[in-house]
Amino acid sequence: MKGSKKNFLPLASFDIHLENYQSLVNEFRRNNDISHIKSILNDSWTTDLTKKVFQEDYDAIVLTDTNQKILWVSDGFRDMTGYSKKYAVGKRPSFLQGEETSKSVKNQIREELFYNHTFSGSLLNYRKNGEPYLCQISIFPIYDAKERLDNFIAFEKEISVDKSRINTYLS
Known about the structure:
The chain is an alpha+beta fold.
């Protein structure tokens, strides 16, 4: 084929797919998380919780009972912490905290949950390998149909911080 010229054109459909890929993955992940949480909460699930899952920016979700014992964690929990779902279930989220975790923030979380309030703030946690990471946490109480506290749900997002600056978050 002397003189033939090959034209390479990018696949337009693939380009379009790449643009929407991350939003599709996020939507799938959120719908999957909702499905799992609904199966645990049964009657306590509300459309407000569905909205919350889609409004919050999170890497992991942690669902606890009223004593803060973990009932379920999302797949993102393992990616963020290194701990498996099986390991986390039955423990309190405080197992992620360490020696340099802020005592004042831990006390603030404890107090807000005692009064069934929401909490939003950042906390230094530790991965399974011992590496510290800064985590933005938003915790919300979940009430049953009779307005009794049923569970807590926490949306957690790792905050990117220069490792040399992580000490500024320890207090």
